[in-house]
């Protein structure tokens, strides 16, 4: 028998930024942890930090075998390496020393199907597997992330006490819950990131409208965002945005934000979210707009050339036309309302995608719980997630957040301001694809009758795809062209 006192309670392999900080967080919460990394300098670096940050109970290991054998059984090993092939390599490297009943927990932004494949692969040897979404960046990992573990429930039970202490704490509990079976933890994290893309896009549009149409300076913007962060928009992303506007450029005049190249990078989870929405026939236009905007932002040189060509073709900057008549105070208040209403639509899309996947996979996701564990620690943490939690607790079968009675009231109250902002932006030529997508989503969803009847008629005309009627059951086909062009007095109707 092993001398369990000398063994660590848990292990973590992969000591890049997230891994290192999560390991220190676990140690700080009083769980002795072993760490391992392929390049040994990272192990040393983590050991130094563990010492400096309070002699934390963390031991470093330089070989996979020593690392695995330094753990109490059943062993739990968190891996935090780049998604994809490095995860497979790490599993191969470590699992050879693991035994039946031990668990692997992948904390990366992994594609959920990879998790499901690995789960089956290691199951042959009795190894349990979890795919655990980890959100909150470096700061969150160190001081309290939001954790989304899915997969083997017994594996979750082995680490439940640890993750509940390590996760961010909010008034209604730790920001972690067992998400569901299979790759559900990764999937939920992926949708979290899609929502994150949407939030960031909407905030950037609010900034653009206030700056370009409202003529607000960075310091005014900083104050406005700080003020918004004390109300219904209170959230991590609004808070950091206020901070960003305050940072001066150390290499020149003005604020740093104005010197940043307008090209957004990405690692892929937002793209997966949009792909999944399409796969599942779920409309997610705000999230898709945010992804499209990242693609367009990447075409910097092309955009510059286009600006030139269109200017030569007579395009003028029409912002001055709207600027004159702007009441700044009212614009600021309108933009706040437009941002909030747009955000509700974006979250509605993300939640509906989760529901569609949950039904497809039989994951039985608890949406109220998902909103709750996003209240703290993660990038989309926001006061309004508590309202989403309550909406799903009131009605777990809620068709859309938009029709929750409380949110419905808020949308209606804000729609005038929302329409004013979008209208102004369109008039001034300021692109607001996220806000427009949200508003169009709202207007499409709330209308009992859409022009889809005409599309159905067209499909039936050219492809005999048939249509249904509003007044009688069954499916119908009509010889549209023949009927439309029936000769009247010898003259073709078409002529
Ligand atoms: C988080 C974030 C994080 C993500 C980055 C970068 O929850 O902590 O979602 O996991 O990797 O935000 O994402 P992009 O590079 O795709 O913008």
What does this structure look like?
The chain has 495 residues and is α/β, with parallel strands linked by helices. The protein has three domains: 179 residues, 3-Layer(aba) Sandwich (Rossmann fold); 257 residues, N-(1-d-carboxylethyl)-l-norvaline Dehydrogenase, domain 2 (Orthogonal Bundle), CATH 1.10.1040; 37 residues, 6-Phosphogluconate Dehydrogenase, domain 3 (Single alpha-helices involved in coiled-coils or other helix-helix interfaces, Up-down Bundle). 56% of the residues lie in helices and 8% in strands. The chain is built from 21 helices and eleven strands. The strands form three sheets. It has a seven-stranded mixed sheet with strand order 3-2-1-4-5-6-7, sandwiched between helices. A two-stranded antiparallel ribbon has the order 8-9. A two-stranded antiparallel sheet has the order 10-11. β8 and β9 form a beta hairpin. α8 packs across α12. The longest helix is centred in the last third of the chain and has 34 residues. It is globular and about 90 Å long. The protein binds 6-phosphogluconic acid. The site of 6-phosphogluconic acid has 13 residues, from α8 and α11.
């Amino acid at each position: 028998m092993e001398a369990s006192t000398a063994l660590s309670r848990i292990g973590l392999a992969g000591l890049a930024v997230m891994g290192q900080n999560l390991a220190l967080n676990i140690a700080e919460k009083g769980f002795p942890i072993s760490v391992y990394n392929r390049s040994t300098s990272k192990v040393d670096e983590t050991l130094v930090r563990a010492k400096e940050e309070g002699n934390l109970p963390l031991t470093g290991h330089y070989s996979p075998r020593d690392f695995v054998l330094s753990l109490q059984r059943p062993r739990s090993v968190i891996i935090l390496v780049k998604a994809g092939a490095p995860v497979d390599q790490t599993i191969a490297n470590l699992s050879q020393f693991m035994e039946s009943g031990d668990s692997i927990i992948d904390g990366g932004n992994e594609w959920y199907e990879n998790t499901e494949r690995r789960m089956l692969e290691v199951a042959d040897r009795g190894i349990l597997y979890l795919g655990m979404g980890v959100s909150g960046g470096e700061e969150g990992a160190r001081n309290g992330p939001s954790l989304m573990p899915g997969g083997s429930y017994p594996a979750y039970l082995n680490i439940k006490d640890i993750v509940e202490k390590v996760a961010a704490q909010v008034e209604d509990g730790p920001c972690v819950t067992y998400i569901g079976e299979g790759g559900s933890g990764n999937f939920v994290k992926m949708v979290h990131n899609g929502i994150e893309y949407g939030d960031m896009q909407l905030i950037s549009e609010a900034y653009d409208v206030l700056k370009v149409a409202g003529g607000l300076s960075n310091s005014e913007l900083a104050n406005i965002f700080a003020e918004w962060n004390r109300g219904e928009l209170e959230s991590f992303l609004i808070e950091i945005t206020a901070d960003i506007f305050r940072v001066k450029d150390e290499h020149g005049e003005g604020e740093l934000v104005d010197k940043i190249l307008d090209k957004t990078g990405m690692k892929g989870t937002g793209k997966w979210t949009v792909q999944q929405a399409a796969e599942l026939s779920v409309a997610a236009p705000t999230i898709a707009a945010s992804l499209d905007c990242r693609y367009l932002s990447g075409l910097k040189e092309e955009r510059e050339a286009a600006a030139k060509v269109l200017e030569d073709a007579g395009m003028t900057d029409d912002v001055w036309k709207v600027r004159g008549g702007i009441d700044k105070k009212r614009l600021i208040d309108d933009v706040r309302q437009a941002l909030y209403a747009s955000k509700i639509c974006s979250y509605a899309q993300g939640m509906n995608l989760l529901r569609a996947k949950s039904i497809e996979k039989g994951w039985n996701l608890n949406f109220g719980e998902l909103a709750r564990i996003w209240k703290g620690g993660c990038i989309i943490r926001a006061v309004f997630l508590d309202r989403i939690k309550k909406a799903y607790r009131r009605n777990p079968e809620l068709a859309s957040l938009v029709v929750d009675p409380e949110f419905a009231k808020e949308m209606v109250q804000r729609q005038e301001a929302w329409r004013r902002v979008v209208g102004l932006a369109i008039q001034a030529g300021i692109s607001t694809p996220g806000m427009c997508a949200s508003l169009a989503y709202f207007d499409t969803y709330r209308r009992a009758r859409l022009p889809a009847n005409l599309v159905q008629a067209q499909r039936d005309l050219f492809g005999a795809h048939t249509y249904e009627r509003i007044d009688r059951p069954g499916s119908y086909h009509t010889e549209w062209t023949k009927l439309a062009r029936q000769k009247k007095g010898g003259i073709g109707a078409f002529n």
